[in-house]
Amino acid sequence: MKKTILALFAALTLFACNEDKKADTNLHITGNIRGFKQGTLYIKKLQDTSYITLDSITIKGNSNFKSDLNIDSPQMLYLILDRGQTNSMDDKLAFFAEPGNMTINSNIEGFYSRAKITGSENQKIYEEFLQHRKRYIDIDLDLTQKSIEAIQNNNLKQIDSISEKKEQLLKRRYLITANFVINHSDHEVGPYIALSEIHDINIKYLDTMQKSMTPKVAESHYGKILTELLEDRKKDEAAEVK
Predict the structure, then answer these.
(1) Distance of CA 87 to the CA centre of its chain
(2) Which of 35, 88, 146, 198 is the most buried (most CB within 10 A)?
(3) pTM higher than the cut 0.90
């Protein structure tokens, strides 16, 4: 009887510790990587130019996983799959995390392309943006292929025409992206897109994007970086005038 009571006490203590640990976190991720039976999953964030590990999950036979984290602000995280001895280019999945419950399901074959991520409004907006961006990337790739063919044929007139089209496409892509950021200025993914996609845009557009942020977003991780970038750009321009 005494052993039973001690065992029960130990179990309750362990449960309480786990609950305390979970109480200290604000992001709860669960998921399944179908077909992934052996290896390690890492959840990392990019800090400066290095990836910092927030959690590591050992997979042995069961492809389900969970992770409880604490993040100061909604931000881009990375789920990285370590296959052990098998190398693959398809081993990193970016997802925009925000406090709450998130689910990430995928497949070992097509880890990135087959991923389904739910529980984050910022992630939904980011996926919408990626669809817009893909259209411009596809057009640019087509123009690049035509440019290569024109160079091979020494068609100078066509080379100049394609070069002009690529410049116009880039300008249009920048303006469309800036407009997307402004239209989603109440979500933290907005300044992230501005920083990762068009940080070198004309300063007047950068200023408009920065001013469009809601107070909450302006105080977020990427909101503060966008404000710092704008201030640095203004200082650089002022120095050039002098």
Answers:
(1) 22
(2) 198
(3) no
Of 55, 44, 59, 46, the closest CA to residue 108 belongs to 59
Q: What is the mean pLDDT of residues 154-165?
A: 95
Q: How far apart are CA 50 and CA 121, in angstroms?
A: 26
**140: exposed, middle or buried (C-beta count within 10 Å: 0-12, 13-18, 19+)?**
middle
Determine the angle formed by the axes of helices 156-183 and 121-152, rounding to 10 degrees.
170
Q: Tens of pLDDT along 72-107?
A: 999 999 999 998 765 566 799 999 999 999 999 999
Q: What does the alpha-carbon distance between residue 160 and residue 166 come to, in Å, rounded to a whole number? A: 10
Identify whether the C-beta of residue 181 lies closer than 8 Å to the C-beta of residue 202.
no
**What letter would DSSP give residue 89?**
S
- Annotated domain spans of the chain: 26-119, 123-241
